Amino acid sequence: MDAPTTTRPTIDDIRAAAGRIKEAVIRTPMMKSETLSQIIDADVWLKFENLQFTAAYKERGALNKLLQLTAEERARGVVAASAGNHAQAVAYHGRRLGIPVTIVMPVSTPTIKVTQTEGHGAHVVLRGERFDDAYAHALELEAERRLVFVHPFDDVAVMNGAGTIGIEMLEDAPDLDMLVVPIGGGGLISGVATAAKALKPDIKIVGVEAELYPSMKNVVEGGHGAIGGDTLAEGIAVKEPGQLTRAIIGELVDRIDLVAEKDIEHAVAMLVNIEKSVVEGAGAAGLAAMLAQPERFRGRKVGTILCGGNIDTHLLANVLVRELVRCGRIARLRIAAQDRPGALAAITAKFYECGVNIIETNHHRIFTRLPAKDTVIEVECEARDAQAIDTLVKRLEDAGFNVERAELD
C-alpha cells in the first residue's frame, strides 16, 4: 500500500489521497458569490465543505489516514482526541471501514456532540476538564491498548487529505490568484497551500485566525498576542499549533490575518442571508477577514473554504438577531418619562407613526437615578430598516423624551 511521505505533504501524495478518498467524500461545490464579490470588490469564490456528510472538511484527512492503515492496525483500532468535527469524521469513516474507534472528549463537551459521535459508532471516553487533558489520555490509551492515534492536524496523511480541497478549488476556478484559509492547528492550510503552490506557484495564500487565538501567527511571525477567551470560531481556537504544520506555514503562507468576534458573527450571518448556507464560526473566518478589510482583497480572484457547518442552533439564532441589531433593524431604547397616565401612550404613538414594531417593554421605577416621579421605559423594537428607528428616536426626542440606545460594540 502506498504510504505518504513522513516529513511533509507533497502534490503527488495529495493527488494519491484524492484518488483514495474520492468514492467516500463529497466533491463539494465551488461557486462564485456575485453578491459578496460586489461587496468586497473582488471575485469571491466559496468552497462549500460544510456540505460534507459530517458537515466539515475533516472527513478528507481522517479517511485518508484510515485507508492507509494495515489490516493489523485496523483490527486494533484507532483513538483520537476531539470535541468537534474531527471526532465525527474519524467515527463516521471508522464505522464505514469496520475499524473500532475510541474518541476522548473533555467532560465539559456538550451532550449533543457526545451523542452525535456515539451515533457514528464510536466509543466515547470523557476525561479531564480541558482538551489538553483529553489529548493526554488519548495518548495513554494509544500506548496501553496499542491503538493508532489519529491526530487532528499534525499528521502528514491528514494534511494530504485536506490538501485535496486545494486541487478541487483550482480545477473548478483556475484563475484564482489568492486563497484565504482558516487556521487552527494548521493541517488544512498546510495541505491546501502545498497543493496550490505546486499547481500555481504565484498564488497567494492568506491564513486567518481568530483574534483571541493568534497561536500560529505568534509562532510564525514572532508575535506575542494573548491567547484565550470565548470565541464563536471554536473550531480554530487552538492554543498550541502543530509542530509539522508551523514549518510548512512559515514557508508557504504569505500572511496571517486576525479577525475579531464581531466580524466572525457578521460573516456567519452574511452566509445565511446571502448564500442561504449555515456555516460555523471557524468556517466563516476567511470571509470574515475579507469583509473586515476589503481593501486587502480588492481586485483579486480569491477563494475561501467554508470548512464546517456545525453550529448550535440556539447560538446561530443569537448571531442572526445580533446581526439585525448591528444593521439597525432591531434596537433597545431606554426612554425616560414621567410616571403618569398617558406617558406610555404618548411614546407608543411615536412608534406607530414611524412604523416601528414593539417587541417587548419594561418599566424601571426602582433601580434608576431618575427622580421618584419618573420612570425608565425600556423598549425592544424592530423595523424595516435602520432609518425608521433613527426617525423614531428623533421624534421621541423632539417630543421631550430623553432616549438612550443600547449598543453591542
TrEMBL record:
Aminoacyl-tRNA synthetase recorded as keyword: no
EC category: lyase
Alphabetized CDD domains for the sequence: ACT_ThrD-II-like (cd04886), Thr-dehyd (cd01562)
A single BP term in Gene Ontology: L-threonine catabolic process
Ubl conjugation keyword on record: no
Catalysed reaction, written as an equation: L-serine = pyruvate + NH4(+)
GO molecular function annotation: L-serine ammonia-lyase activity; pyridoxal phosphate binding; threonine deaminase activity
UniProt keyword list: Lyase, Pyridoxal phosphate
Cofactor(s) it depends on: pyridoxal 5'-phosphate
Domain ACT: 332-409
Enzyme Commission code(s) on record: 4.3.1.19
Record family assignment: Belongs to the serine/threonine dehydratase family.
The protein's name in its UniProt record: Threonine ammonia-lyase
Lineage: Bacteria, Pseudomonadati, Pseudomonadota, Alphaproteobacteria, Sphingomonadales
